[in-house]
Amino acid sequence: MLKTMKQQGVVPAGRGLLGKKSGLGFFLQQLVKQRALVLMSVPFLLWLVLFKYVPLWGWTIAFQKYKPAKSFGDQTWVGLKQFKFMFSDDRFLLVLRNTLAMSLINFVLGFVTAITLAILLNELRKMAFKRVVQTISYLPHFISWVVAATIIQTVLSADGGIVNEILMGLGFIHEPILWLGEGKYFWGILGASEVWKNVGWNTIIYLAAMTTIDPAQYEAAEIDGAGRFQRIFHITLPGIRPVVIILIILNLGQILETGFEPQYLLGNGPNLDYSENLEIFILKYGMNLGNYSLSVAAGIFKTVISIVLLFSANYLSKRLGQERLF
Amino acid sequence: MAKSQIASARYSSAGDRLFDIANYTFMVVLMIVTIYPFINMLAVSLNDAGDSIKGGVYLWPRVWTWENYDYVFKQATILHSTWISASRTILGTLVSTFCSAMVAYTISRPEFVLRKFVTIAFVLTMYFNGGLIPNFLLMRELHLMGTYWVYIIPGILGVFNVIVIRSFIEQLPEGILESARMDGAGEFTTFLRIVLPLSMPVLATTSLFTAVYHWNSWFDVFLYNSSKVELSTLQYELMKMLQNSNASISSSGGNMDGSGGTAANFVTPTSIRATMTIVASLPIVMVYPFLQKYFVKGMTLGGVKG
Protein backbone atom coordinates (compact mmCIF):
# COMPACT_ATOMS: atom_id res chain seq x y z
CA MET A 1 0.00 0.00 0.00
CA LEU A 2 2.68 2.44 1.07
CA LYS A 3 4.86 1.25 -1.72
CA THR A 4 2.27 1.92 -4.42
CA MET A 5 1.62 5.34 -2.97
CA LYS A 6 5.29 6.14 -3.22
CA GLN A 7 5.28 5.00 -6.80
CA GLN A 8 2.32 7.19 -7.53
CA GLY A 9 4.17 10.07 -5.97
CA VAL A 10 1.52 10.56 -3.26
CA VAL A 11 4.12 10.07 -0.56
CA PRO A 12 7.58 11.44 -1.22
CA ALA A 13 10.03 8.63 -1.91
CA GLY A 14 12.30 7.62 0.94
CA ARG A 15 10.09 9.10 3.62
CA GLY A 16 7.58 7.49 5.96
CA LEU A 17 3.88 8.28 6.10
CA LEU A 18 4.18 10.47 9.17
CA GLY A 19 7.56 11.82 8.22
CA LYS A 20 9.17 9.99 11.11
CA LYS A 21 12.42 9.70 9.23
CA SER A 22 13.24 13.38 9.21
CA GLY A 23 11.70 14.36 12.55
CA LEU A 24 10.00 17.54 13.57
CA GLY A 25 11.42 19.73 10.85
CA PHE A 26 10.00 17.54 8.16
CA PHE A 27 6.69 17.34 10.00
CA LEU A 28 6.36 21.13 10.14
CA GLN A 29 7.41 21.40 6.53
CA GLN A 30 4.69 18.93 5.56
CA LEU A 31 2.18 20.82 7.70
CA VAL A 32 2.87 24.01 5.76
CA LYS A 33 2.77 22.16 2.47
CA GLN A 34 -0.54 20.56 3.39
CA ARG A 35 -2.00 23.75 4.81
CA ALA A 36 -5.17 23.28 2.78
CA LEU A 37 -5.88 19.94 4.47
CA VAL A 38 -4.92 21.43 7.82
CA LEU A 39 -7.33 24.33 7.34
CA MET A 40 -10.07 21.93 6.35
CA SER A 41 -9.74 19.77 9.46
CA VAL A 42 -8.13 21.62 12.37
CA PRO A 43 -11.02 24.05 13.00
CA PHE A 44 -13.25 21.01 13.43
CA LEU A 45 -10.69 19.44 15.72
CA LEU A 46 -11.08 22.51 17.93
CA TRP A 47 -14.86 22.09 17.77
CA LEU A 48 -14.41 18.46 18.78
CA VAL A 49 -12.23 19.37 21.75
CA LEU A 50 -14.69 22.03 22.92
CA PHE A 51 -17.89 20.00 22.57
CA LYS A 52 -16.69 16.45 23.26
CA TYR A 53 -13.56 16.63 25.39
CA VAL A 54 -14.08 19.76 27.49
CA PRO A 55 -17.32 18.40 29.07
CA LEU A 56 -15.20 15.60 30.55
CA TRP A 57 -13.78 18.29 32.82
CA GLY A 58 -17.27 18.41 34.31
CA TRP A 59 -16.72 14.93 35.72
CA THR A 60 -14.82 16.61 38.56
CA ILE A 61 -18.22 17.81 39.80
CA ALA A 62 -18.95 14.25 40.96
CA PHE A 63 -16.11 14.47 43.47
CA GLN A 64 -17.24 17.81 44.86
CA LYS A 65 -20.13 19.17 46.82
CA TYR A 66 -20.85 21.35 43.81
CA LYS A 67 -22.40 24.77 44.27
CA PRO A 68 -23.14 26.55 40.97
CA ALA A 69 -22.43 29.96 42.45
CA LYS A 70 -18.88 29.10 43.50
CA SER A 71 -15.82 29.08 41.28
CA PHE A 72 -13.84 25.89 40.68
CA GLY A 73 -11.21 26.70 43.31
CA ASP A 74 -13.82 27.35 46.00
CA GLN A 75 -15.69 24.04 45.64
CA THR A 76 -15.55 21.58 48.51
CA TRP A 77 -13.98 18.27 47.53
CA VAL A 78 -15.72 15.24 49.00
CA GLY A 79 -13.95 12.31 47.36
CA LEU A 80 -16.18 9.35 46.67
CA LYS A 81 -18.97 10.48 48.97
CA GLN A 82 -21.47 10.94 46.12
CA PHE A 83 -20.83 7.42 44.86
CA LYS A 84 -21.21 5.97 48.37
CA PHE A 85 -24.47 7.82 48.85
CA MET A 86 -25.67 6.65 45.46
CA PHE A 87 -25.13 2.97 46.18
CA SER A 88 -26.87 3.22 49.52
CA ASP A 89 -29.83 5.08 48.01
CA ASP A 90 -32.87 2.81 47.64
CA ARG A 91 -34.15 4.86 44.74
CA PHE A 92 -30.88 4.44 42.84
CA LEU A 93 -30.94 0.68 43.36
CA LEU A 94 -34.54 0.54 42.16
CA VAL A 95 -33.59 2.59 39.10
CA LEU A 96 -30.67 0.25 38.45
CA ARG A 97 -33.03 -2.73 38.64
CA ASN A 98 -35.38 -1.09 36.14
CA THR A 99 -32.51 -0.22 33.81
CA LEU A 100 -31.11 -3.76 33.82
CA ALA A 101 -34.53 -5.39 33.47
CA MET A 102 -35.55 -3.23 30.51
CA SER A 103 -32.13 -3.64 28.97
CA LEU A 104 -32.26 -7.43 29.21
CA ILE A 105 -35.79 -7.59 27.80
CA ASN A 106 -34.88 -5.29 24.91
CA PHE A 107 -31.63 -7.13 24.26
CA VAL A 108 -33.19 -10.59 23.98
CA LEU A 109 -36.39 -9.44 22.30
CA GLY A 110 -34.51 -7.18 19.89
CA PHE A 111 -32.19 -9.91 18.65
CA VAL A 112 -34.77 -12.68 18.45
CA THR A 113 -37.40 -10.65 16.60
CA ALA A 114 -35.00 -8.99 14.16
CA ILE A 115 -33.24 -12.23 13.22
CA THR A 116 -36.57 -14.06 12.87
CA LEU A 117 -38.04 -11.32 10.69
CA ALA A 118 -34.89 -11.19 8.55
CA ILE A 119 -35.05 -14.95 7.96
CA LEU A 120 -38.74 -14.78 7.08
CA LEU A 121 -38.14 -11.86 4.71
CA ASN A 122 -35.29 -13.79 3.14
CA GLU A 123 -37.68 -16.67 2.46
CA LEU A 124 -40.09 -14.47 0.50
CA ARG A 125 -39.88 -15.14 -3.21
CA LYS A 126 -41.98 -12.29 -4.55
CA MET A 127 -39.47 -9.44 -4.64
CA ALA A 128 -42.00 -6.64 -5.08
CA PHE A 129 -43.97 -7.87 -2.05
CA LYS A 130 -40.77 -8.14 -0.04
CA ARG A 131 -39.84 -4.57 -0.88
CA VAL A 132 -43.24 -3.26 0.17
CA VAL A 133 -43.03 -5.10 3.51
CA GLN A 134 -39.55 -3.71 4.08
CA THR A 135 -40.47 -0.13 3.27
CA ILE A 136 -43.44 -0.25 5.63
CA SER A 137 -41.43 -1.93 8.35
CA TYR A 138 -38.87 0.91 8.31
CA LEU A 139 -41.52 3.56 8.89
CA PRO A 140 -41.71 3.50 12.71
CA HIS A 141 -37.93 3.81 12.95
CA PHE A 142 -38.02 7.25 11.36
CA ILE A 143 -40.77 8.83 13.43
CA SER A 144 -39.89 10.50 16.70
CA TRP A 145 -40.42 8.87 20.07
CA VAL A 146 -42.85 11.69 20.80
CA VAL A 147 -45.06 10.54 17.94
CA ALA A 148 -44.48 6.88 18.83
CA ALA A 149 -45.41 7.50 22.46
CA THR A 150 -48.54 9.38 21.38
CA ILE A 151 -49.49 6.39 19.23
CA ILE A 152 -48.73 3.87 21.97
CA GLN A 153 -50.78 5.85 24.46
CA THR A 154 -53.67 5.99 21.99
CA VAL A 155 -53.75 2.28 21.13
CA LEU A 156 -53.42 1.33 24.80
CA SER A 157 -56.03 3.81 26.00
CA ALA A 158 -58.71 2.48 28.31
CA ASP A 159 -61.19 4.62 26.45
CA GLY A 160 -61.57 3.14 22.99
CA GLY A 161 -57.95 2.03 22.57
CA ILE A 162 -57.72 -0.68 19.92
CA VAL A 163 -55.82 -3.14 22.14
CA ASN A 164 -58.49 -3.12 24.83
CA GLU A 165 -61.26 -3.29 22.23
CA ILE A 166 -59.75 -6.35 20.55
CA LEU A 167 -59.10 -8.11 23.86
CA MET A 168 -62.65 -7.39 25.01
CA GLY A 169 -64.08 -8.41 21.65
CA LEU A 170 -62.30 -11.76 21.90
CA GLY A 171 -63.52 -12.16 25.46
CA PHE A 172 -60.09 -12.27 27.10
CA ILE A 173 -60.95 -9.40 29.42
CA HIS A 174 -64.26 -7.96 30.53
CA GLU A 175 -63.24 -4.41 31.27
CA PRO A 176 -60.53 -2.23 29.75
CA ILE A 177 -57.09 -2.43 31.34
CA LEU A 178 -55.22 0.75 32.21
CA TRP A 179 -52.04 -0.49 30.55
CA LEU A 180 -49.89 2.54 31.29
CA GLY A 181 -51.44 3.17 34.66
CA GLU A 182 -49.97 0.08 36.28
CA GLY A 183 -46.26 -0.48 36.78
CA LYS A 184 -46.32 -4.24 36.26
CA TYR A 185 -47.12 -3.88 32.55
CA PHE A 186 -44.48 -1.26 31.82
CA TRP A 187 -41.47 -3.41 30.91
CA GLY A 188 -43.57 -5.48 28.56
CA ILE A 189 -45.07 -2.41 26.92
CA LEU A 190 -41.62 -0.90 26.50
CA GLY A 191 -40.22 -4.11 25.02
CA ALA A 192 -43.11 -4.37 22.58
CA SER A 193 -42.78 -0.69 21.65
CA GLU A 194 -39.08 -1.06 20.92
CA VAL A 195 -39.81 -4.06 18.73
CA TRP A 196 -42.60 -2.23 16.90
CA LYS A 197 -40.37 0.75 16.28
CA ASN A 198 -37.11 -0.92 15.32
CA VAL A 199 -37.60 -4.52 14.23
CA GLY A 200 -37.82 -3.68 10.53
CA TRP A 201 -34.84 -1.38 10.67
CA ASN A 202 -32.73 -3.95 12.52
CA THR A 203 -33.27 -6.54 9.78
CA ILE A 204 -31.25 -4.45 7.29
CA ILE A 205 -27.90 -5.61 8.55
CA TYR A 206 -28.92 -9.29 8.75
CA LEU A 207 -30.43 -9.22 5.27
CA ALA A 208 -27.21 -7.69 3.96
CA ALA A 209 -25.24 -10.50 5.59
CA MET A 210 -27.59 -13.07 4.04
CA THR A 211 -26.91 -11.76 0.54
CA THR A 212 -23.26 -12.76 0.96
CA ILE A 213 -24.21 -16.44 1.42
CA ASP A 214 -23.42 -18.43 -1.73
CA PRO A 215 -26.71 -19.56 -3.37
CA ALA A 216 -24.95 -22.78 -4.43
CA GLN A 217 -25.07 -23.86 -0.78
CA TYR A 218 -28.85 -23.70 -0.79
CA GLU A 219 -29.06 -25.55 -4.08
CA ALA A 220 -26.75 -28.30 -2.85
CA ALA A 221 -28.76 -28.64 0.36
CA GLU A 222 -31.98 -28.82 -1.61
CA ILE A 223 -30.62 -31.60 -3.81
CA ASP A 224 -29.57 -33.47 -0.66
CA GLY A 225 -33.17 -33.25 0.46
CA ALA A 226 -32.82 -30.60 3.16
CA GLY A 227 -36.15 -28.95 3.98
CA ARG A 228 -36.90 -25.27 4.51
CA PHE A 229 -36.12 -25.32 8.22
CA GLN A 230 -32.98 -27.39 7.79
CA ARG A 231 -31.70 -24.87 5.25
CA ILE A 232 -32.47 -22.01 7.62
CA PHE A 233 -30.75 -23.65 10.58
CA HIS A 234 -27.74 -25.05 8.76
CA ILE A 235 -27.03 -22.40 6.13
CA THR A 236 -28.73 -19.07 6.84
CA LEU A 237 -28.06 -18.88 10.58
CA PRO A 238 -24.39 -19.91 10.41
CA GLY A 239 -24.02 -17.45 7.52
CA ILE A 240 -25.04 -14.45 9.63
CA ARG A 241 -23.20 -15.57 12.77
CA PRO A 242 -20.25 -13.14 12.45
CA VAL A 243 -22.63 -10.17 12.18
CA VAL A 244 -24.69 -11.40 15.13
CA ILE A 245 -21.58 -11.67 17.29
CA ILE A 246 -20.38 -8.17 16.38
CA LEU A 247 -23.81 -6.76 17.20
CA ILE A 248 -23.92 -8.63 20.53
CA ILE A 249 -20.56 -7.11 21.48
CA LEU A 250 -21.76 -3.64 20.51
CA ASN A 251 -25.01 -4.08 22.41
CA LEU A 252 -23.36 -5.43 25.55
CA GLY A 253 -21.57 -2.11 25.80
CA GLN A 254 -24.97 -0.44 25.74
CA ILE A 255 -26.51 -2.48 28.54
CA LEU A 256 -26.94 0.53 30.83
CA GLU A 257 -28.02 2.77 27.97
CA THR A 258 -31.64 1.74 27.72
CA GLY A 259 -32.48 5.00 26.10
CA PHE A 260 -34.28 7.87 27.62
CA GLU A 261 -37.15 9.02 25.46
CA PRO A 262 -39.59 6.07 25.62
CA GLN A 263 -39.28 5.71 29.39
CA TYR A 264 -39.59 9.42 29.94
CA LEU A 265 -42.47 9.93 27.52
CA LEU A 266 -44.51 6.90 28.57
CA GLY A 267 -43.64 7.22 32.25
CA ASN A 268 -46.16 8.69 34.64
CA GLY A 269 -46.89 8.75 38.36
CA PRO A 270 -48.42 5.28 38.74
CA ASN A 271 -45.77 3.42 36.72
CA LEU A 272 -42.75 5.43 37.86
CA ASP A 273 -41.38 2.63 40.07
CA TYR A 274 -40.95 0.55 36.94
CA SER A 275 -40.32 3.15 34.24
CA GLU A 276 -37.63 5.29 35.87
CA ASN A 277 -34.21 4.31 34.53
CA LEU A 278 -30.70 5.68 34.99
CA GLU A 279 -31.12 8.44 32.41
CA ILE A 280 -34.27 9.74 34.07
CA PHE A 281 -32.58 9.51 37.48
CA ILE A 282 -29.71 11.63 36.11
CA LEU A 283 -32.13 14.16 34.66
CA LYS A 284 -34.26 14.31 37.79
CA TYR A 285 -31.37 14.83 40.21
CA GLY A 286 -29.57 17.20 37.87
CA MET A 287 -32.25 19.44 36.44
CA ASN A 288 -35.22 19.14 38.80
CA LEU A 289 -33.49 18.81 42.16
CA GLY A 290 -30.34 20.72 41.25
CA ASN A 291 -28.07 18.05 42.76
CA TYR A 292 -25.43 18.29 40.03
CA SER A 293 -22.82 16.23 41.88
CA LEU A 294 -25.01 13.15 42.32
CA SER A 295 -26.29 13.43 38.77
CA VAL A 296 -22.78 13.55 37.32
CA ALA A 297 -21.70 10.65 39.55
CA ALA A 298 -24.53 8.52 38.14
CA GLY A 299 -23.51 9.57 34.63
CA ILE A 300 -19.88 8.57 35.22
CA PHE A 301 -21.03 5.23 36.62
CA LYS A 302 -23.05 4.60 33.47
CA THR A 303 -20.23 5.54 31.04
CA VAL A 304 -17.51 3.62 32.87
CA ILE A 305 -19.60 0.44 33.09
CA SER A 306 -20.41 0.74 29.38
CA ILE A 307 -16.78 1.03 28.36
CA VAL A 308 -15.73 -1.84 30.65
CA LEU A 309 -18.50 -4.06 29.27
CA LEU A 310 -17.64 -3.23 25.67
CA PHE A 311 -13.97 -4.07 26.11
CA SER A 312 -14.71 -7.23 28.14
CA ALA A 313 -17.12 -8.54 25.52
CA ASN A 314 -14.60 -7.79 22.81
CA TYR A 315 -11.81 -9.50 24.76
CA LEU A 316 -13.96 -12.53 25.53
CA SER A 317 -14.91 -12.87 21.90
CA LYS A 318 -11.26 -12.70 20.92
CA ARG A 319 -10.37 -15.39 23.45
CA LEU A 320 -13.11 -17.65 22.15
CA GLY A 321 -11.77 -17.22 18.63
CA GLN A 322 -14.85 -15.36 17.48
CA GLU A 323 -15.35 -12.13 15.59
CA ARG A 324 -14.36 -8.96 17.35
CA LEU A 325 -14.79 -5.26 17.02
CA PHE A 326 -11.19 -4.08 17.36
CA MET B 1 -34.68 -44.69 -5.35
CA ALA B 2 -35.96 -42.32 -7.96
CA LYS B 3 -39.47 -42.83 -6.70
CA SER B 4 -38.65 -42.04 -3.10
CA GLN B 5 -36.84 -38.90 -4.19
CA ILE B 6 -39.84 -37.68 -6.05
CA ALA B 7 -42.00 -38.51 -3.07
CA SER B 8 -39.75 -36.54 -0.74
CA ALA B 9 -39.68 -33.64 -3.18
CA ARG B 10 -43.45 -33.65 -3.28
CA TYR B 11 -43.64 -33.87 0.49
CA SER B 12 -41.27 -30.93 0.90
CA SER B 13 -43.13 -28.83 -1.64
CA ALA B 14 -46.37 -29.36 0.28
CA GLY B 15 -44.58 -28.30 3.44
CA ASP B 16 -43.04 -25.45 1.49
CA ARG B 17 -46.42 -24.23 0.41
CA LEU B 18 -47.71 -24.30 3.97
CA PHE B 19 -44.64 -22.38 5.11
CA ASP B 20 -45.17 -19.81 2.36
CA ILE B 21 -48.82 -19.32 3.24
CA ALA B 22 -47.95 -18.84 6.90
CA ASN B 23 -45.10 -16.53 6.01
CA TYR B 24 -47.11 -14.29 3.68
CA THR B 25 -49.95 -14.15 6.20
CA PHE B 26 -47.51 -13.13 8.90
CA MET B 27 -46.10 -10.36 6.69
CA VAL B 28 -49.56 -8.97 6.02
CA VAL B 29 -50.31 -8.93 9.77
CA LEU B 30 -46.98 -7.21 10.39
CA MET B 31 -47.79 -4.51 7.85
CA ILE B 32 -51.20 -3.93 9.41
CA VAL B 33 -49.77 -3.67 12.93
CA THR B 34 -47.12 -1.24 11.70
CA ILE B 35 -49.31 1.03 9.66
CA TYR B 36 -52.71 0.87 11.37
CA PRO B 37 -51.90 3.43 14.09
CA PHE B 38 -50.95 5.98 11.45
CA ILE B 39 -54.08 5.39 9.39
CA ASN B 40 -56.17 5.62 12.53
CA MET B 41 -54.52 8.93 13.50
CA LEU B 42 -55.12 10.23 9.97
CA ALA B 43 -58.79 9.18 10.13
CA VAL B 44 -59.30 10.85 13.52
CA SER B 45 -57.52 14.01 12.36
CA LEU B 46 -59.89 14.26 9.40
CA ASN B 47 -62.99 13.43 11.42
CA ASP B 48 -65.22 15.91 13.17
CA ALA B 49 -63.92 16.33 16.74
CA GLY B 50 -67.36 16.12 18.33
CA ASP B 51 -68.13 12.98 16.38
CA SER B 52 -64.82 11.34 17.38
CA ILE B 53 -65.86 11.44 21.05
CA LYS B 54 -68.46 8.76 20.28
CA GLY B 55 -65.60 6.46 19.31
CA GLY B 56 -65.57 3.90 16.54
CA VAL B 57 -63.45 5.85 14.04
CA TYR B 58 -60.91 3.32 12.77
CA LEU B 59 -59.72 3.44 9.19
CA TRP B 60 -61.84 6.14 7.63
CA PRO B 61 -63.26 9.45 8.83
CA ARG B 62 -66.99 9.26 9.52
CA VAL B 63 -67.71 12.99 9.35
CA TRP B 64 -65.12 14.53 7.04
CA THR B 65 -63.66 17.88 8.04
CA TRP B 66 -60.53 20.03 7.75
CA GLU B 67 -61.47 21.83 10.96
CA ASN B 68 -58.75 20.16 13.04
CA TYR B 69 -55.99 21.18 10.64
CA ASP B 70 -57.52 24.60 10.35
CA TYR B 71 -57.48 24.99 14.12
CA VAL B 72 -53.92 23.65 14.55
CA PHE B 73 -52.45 25.99 11.95
CA LYS B 74 -54.26 28.97 13.37
CA GLN B 75 -52.33 28.53 16.62
CA ALA B 76 -49.44 31.00 16.45
CA THR B 77 -47.26 28.77 18.68
CA ILE B 78 -47.71 25.67 16.56
CA LEU B 79 -47.19 27.52 13.30
CA HIS B 80 -44.02 29.13 14.60
CA SER B 81 -42.70 25.87 16.08
CA THR B 82 -43.22 24.20 12.70
CA TRP B 83 -41.08 26.93 11.15
CA ILE B 84 -38.34 26.44 13.78
CA SER B 85 -38.41 22.66 13.20
CA ALA B 86 -38.22 23.06 9.43
CA SER B 87 -35.49 25.69 9.50
CA ARG B 88 -33.25 23.79 11.92
CA THR B 89 -33.75 20.65 9.86
CA ILE B 90 -32.62 22.35 6.67
CA LEU B 91 -29.83 24.47 8.10
CA GLY B 92 -28.57 21.79 10.51
CA THR B 93 -28.49 19.14 7.82
CA LEU B 94 -26.71 21.32 5.26
CA VAL B 95 -24.06 22.47 7.74
CA SER B 96 -23.49 19.03 9.25
CA THR B 97 -23.34 17.20 5.93
CA PHE B 98 -20.90 19.66 4.38
CA CYS B 99 -18.60 19.82 7.41
CA SER B 100 -18.66 16.07 8.07
CA ALA B 101 -17.79 15.38 4.44
CA MET B 102 -14.94 17.89 4.52
CA VAL B 103 -13.33 16.35 7.60
CA ALA B 104 -13.94 12.87 6.19
CA TYR B 105 -12.10 13.91 3.03
CA THR B 106 -9.03 15.15 4.92
CA ILE B 107 -8.71 11.95 6.93
CA SER B 108 -9.12 9.89 3.79
CA ARG B 109 -5.97 11.44 2.29
CA PRO B 110 -3.14 8.96 2.89
CA GLU B 111 -0.44 11.63 2.74
CA PHE B 112 -2.05 13.94 5.32
CA VAL B 113 0.37 14.24 8.25
CA LEU B 114 -2.38 14.72 10.86
CA ARG B 115 -4.53 11.91 9.46
CA LYS B 116 -3.97 9.42 12.27
CA PHE B 117 -4.19 12.00 15.04
CA VAL B 118 -7.46 13.50 13.77
CA THR B 119 -9.00 10.07 13.13
CA ILE B 120 -8.24 8.83 16.63
CA ALA B 121 -9.46 12.06 18.22
CA PHE B 122 -12.79 11.57 16.44
CA VAL B 123 -13.22 7.82 16.97
CA LEU B 124 -12.48 8.08 20.71
CA THR B 125 -15.47 10.35 21.27
CA MET B 126 -17.80 7.56 20.17
CA TYR B 127 -17.04 5.67 23.38
CA PHE B 128 -17.72 8.31 26.02
CA ASN B 129 -19.85 11.34 26.61
CA GLY B 130 -19.52 14.14 29.11
CA GLY B 131 -23.12 13.59 30.14
CA LEU B 132 -26.13 15.72 30.81
CA ILE B 133 -24.89 18.22 33.41
CA PRO B 134 -21.41 18.85 31.98
CA ASN B 135 -22.95 19.49 28.55
CA PHE B 136 -25.60 21.70 30.08
CA LEU B 137 -22.99 23.77 31.90
CA LEU B 138 -20.94 24.08 28.71
CA MET B 139 -23.90 25.43 26.74
CA ARG B 140 -24.52 27.93 29.49
CA GLU B 141 -20.88 29.02 29.63
CA LEU B 142 -20.81 29.46 25.85
CA HIS B 143 -24.03 31.51 26.03
CA LEU B 144 -25.67 29.15 23.57
CA MET B 145 -28.51 28.56 26.01
CA GLY B 146 -31.63 30.46 25.12
CA THR B 147 -30.54 30.88 21.50
CA TYR B 148 -31.39 29.20 18.23
CA TRP B 149 -27.71 28.28 17.77
CA VAL B 150 -27.82 25.65 20.50
CA TYR B 151 -29.65 23.54 17.89
CA ILE B 152 -26.99 23.99 15.23
CA ILE B 153 -23.50 24.49 16.69
CA PRO B 154 -23.23 21.37 18.90
CA GLY B 155 -24.23 19.37 15.81
CA ILE B 156 -21.83 20.91 13.29
CA LEU B 157 -20.33 17.44 12.84
CA GLY B 158 -21.72 13.96 13.22
CA VAL B 159 -18.80 11.87 14.40
CA PHE B 160 -20.31 8.59 13.21
CA ASN B 161 -21.16 10.19 9.87
CA VAL B 162 -17.56 11.33 9.43
CA ILE B 163 -16.38 7.73 9.78
CA VAL B 164 -19.02 6.39 7.38
CA ILE B 165 -18.28 9.06 4.75
CA ARG B 166 -14.56 8.45 5.07
CA SER B 167 -15.05 4.72 4.33
CA PHE B 168 -16.94 5.72 1.21
CA ILE B 169 -14.39 8.27 -0.02
CA GLU B 170 -11.57 5.77 0.44
CA GLN B 171 -13.32 3.50 -2.06
CA LEU B 172 -13.34 6.18 -4.76
CA PRO B 173 -10.83 5.51 -7.56
CA GLU B 174 -7.65 7.45 -6.80
CA GLY B 175 -7.21 8.24 -10.50
CA ILE B 176 -10.10 10.70 -10.59
CA LEU B 177 -8.71 12.74 -7.70
CA GLU B 178 -5.26 12.50 -9.22
CA SER B 179 -6.34 13.92 -12.56
CA ALA B 180 -8.06 16.84 -10.83
CA ARG B 181 -4.85 17.61 -9.02
CA MET B 182 -2.88 17.47 -12.25
CA ASP B 183 -5.20 20.10 -13.64
CA GLY B 184 -3.97 22.27 -10.81
CA ALA B 185 -6.94 21.97 -8.49
CA GLY B 186 -6.18 22.53 -4.79
CA GLU B 187 -7.43 20.30 -2.01
CA PHE B 188 -10.55 22.34 -1.37
CA THR B 189 -11.46 22.51 -5.05
CA THR B 190 -10.88 18.77 -5.42
CA PHE B 191 -13.15 18.19 -2.46
CA LEU B 192 -15.85 20.57 -3.65
CA ARG B 193 -15.90 19.72 -7.33
CA ILE B 194 -14.91 16.03 -7.40
CA VAL B 195 -15.32 14.31 -4.04
CA LEU B 196 -18.56 15.92 -2.93
CA PRO B 197 -20.55 15.09 -6.09
CA LEU B 198 -19.14 11.54 -6.21
CA SER B 199 -20.11 10.97 -2.58
CA MET B 200 -23.80 11.72 -3.09
CA PRO B 201 -24.94 8.13 -2.35
CA VAL B 202 -23.41 8.14 1.13
CA LEU B 203 -24.32 11.79 1.74
CA ALA B 204 -27.95 10.94 0.97
CA THR B 205 -27.82 8.48 3.85
CA THR B 206 -26.06 10.65 6.39
CA SER B 207 -28.17 13.69 5.57
CA LEU B 208 -31.35 11.63 5.94
CA PHE B 209 -30.20 10.55 9.42
CA THR B 210 -29.26 14.11 10.33
CA ALA B 211 -32.50 15.56 9.00
CA VAL B 212 -34.56 12.97 10.87
CA TYR B 213 -32.61 13.76 14.04
CA HIS B 214 -33.31 17.50 13.71
CA TRP B 215 -36.95 17.15 12.76
CA ASN B 216 -37.59 14.72 15.64
CA SER B 217 -35.67 16.49 18.38
CA TRP B 218 -37.33 17.97 21.42
CA PHE B 219 -34.91 17.20 24.23
CA ASP B 220 -32.53 20.08 23.47
CA VAL B 221 -35.53 22.41 23.42
CA PHE B 222 -36.65 21.02 26.78
CA LEU B 223 -33.17 21.35 28.26
CA TYR B 224 -31.95 24.68 26.92
CA ASN B 225 -34.92 26.65 25.63
CA SER B 226 -37.99 25.52 27.55
CA SER B 227 -38.67 29.07 28.71
CA LYS B 228 -38.50 30.47 25.16
CA VAL B 229 -41.75 29.86 23.30
CA GLU B 230 -40.31 31.47 20.19
CA LEU B 231 -37.65 28.73 19.96
CA SER B 232 -39.97 25.77 20.52
CA THR B 233 -40.13 22.94 17.97
CA LEU B 234 -43.12 21.02 16.70
CA GLN B 235 -42.07 17.84 18.49
CA TYR B 236 -41.70 19.75 21.74
CA GLU B 237 -45.22 21.12 21.40
CA LEU B 238 -46.52 17.61 20.78
CA MET B 239 -44.50 16.38 23.75
CA LYS B 240 -46.20 18.91 26.01
CA MET B 241 -49.60 17.63 24.87
CA LEU B 242 -48.50 14.07 25.58
CA GLN B 243 -47.36 15.05 29.08
CA ASN B 244 -50.72 16.67 29.75
CA SER B 245 -52.57 13.50 28.91
CA ASN B 246 -50.04 11.49 30.96
CA ALA B 247 -50.93 13.72 33.87
CA SER B 248 -54.57 12.91 33.32
CA ILE B 249 -53.79 9.17 33.49
CA SER B 250 -52.19 9.84 36.86
CA SER B 251 -54.94 11.97 38.26
CA SER B 252 -58.25 10.67 36.97
CA GLY B 253 -57.14 7.28 35.75
CA GLY B 254 -58.97 7.71 32.53
CA ASN B 255 -59.33 9.74 29.43
CA MET B 256 -59.19 13.45 29.05
CA ASP B 257 -62.42 15.10 28.19
CA GLY B 258 -61.64 18.75 27.88
CA SER B 259 -62.64 20.54 24.75
CA GLY B 260 -61.71 23.86 23.31
CA GLY B 261 -62.26 26.29 20.50
CA THR B 262 -65.28 28.32 19.71
CA ALA B 263 -68.67 26.98 18.78
CA ALA B 264 -67.80 27.38 15.11
CA ASN B 265 -64.49 25.64 15.58
CA PHE B 266 -65.02 22.76 17.99
CA VAL B 267 -61.92 20.73 18.80
CA THR B 268 -60.86 18.22 21.46
CA PRO B 269 -57.40 17.34 22.79
CA THR B 270 -57.76 13.93 21.15
CA SER B 271 -58.33 15.30 17.68
CA ILE B 272 -55.65 17.97 18.04
CA ARG B 273 -53.20 15.33 19.17
CA ALA B 274 -54.04 13.14 16.18
CA THR B 275 -53.65 16.13 13.85
CA MET B 276 -50.30 17.14 15.35
CA THR B 277 -49.09 13.55 15.09
CA ILE B 278 -49.83 13.52 11.39
CA VAL B 279 -48.20 16.93 10.85
CA ALA B 280 -45.13 15.82 12.82
CA SER B 281 -44.64 12.58 10.91
CA LEU B 282 -45.82 13.43 7.40
CA PRO B 283 -42.60 15.06 6.11
CA ILE B 284 -40.56 12.00 7.08
CA VAL B 285 -43.10 9.54 5.72
CA MET B 286 -43.00 11.35 2.40
CA VAL B 287 -39.22 11.39 2.13
CA TYR B 288 -37.71 8.15 3.49
CA PRO B 289 -39.10 5.64 0.94
CA PHE B 290 -37.29 7.48 -1.84
CA LEU B 291 -33.96 7.23 -0.06
CA GLN B 292 -34.36 3.56 0.86
CA LYS B 293 -31.82 2.37 -1.69
CA TYR B 294 -29.19 4.67 -0.19
CA PHE B 295 -29.74 4.16 3.51
CA VAL B 296 -29.86 0.39 3.19
CA LYS B 297 -26.42 0.57 1.56
CA GLY B 298 -25.18 3.17 4.03
CA MET B 299 -26.31 1.14 7.04
CA THR B 300 -24.47 -1.90 5.74
CA LEU B 301 -21.30 0.08 5.12
CA GLY B 302 -21.41 1.81 8.50
CA GLY B 303 -22.45 -1.28 10.39
CA VAL B 304 -19.88 -3.65 9.01
CA LYS B 305 -16.90 -1.37 8.59
CA GLY B 306 -17.43 1.47 11.03
Automatic annotation (TrEMBL), chain B:
- Look up and give the membrane topology term: Multi-pass membrane protein
Q: Where are the transmembrane segments?
A: 21-39, 83-105, 117-136, 148-169, 190-215, 272-291
GO CC annotations, alphabetized: plasma membrane
Q: Which InterPro entries match?
A: MetI-like (IPR000515), MetI-like_sf (IPR035906)
| GO annotation, biological process | transmembrane transport
- Give the subcellular location: Cell membrane
- What UniProt keywords are attached to this protein's entry? Cell membrane, Membrane, Transmembrane, Transmembrane helix, Transport
Q: What is this protein called?
A: Carbohydrate ABC transporter permease
Name the species this protein comes from: Paenibacillus montanisoli
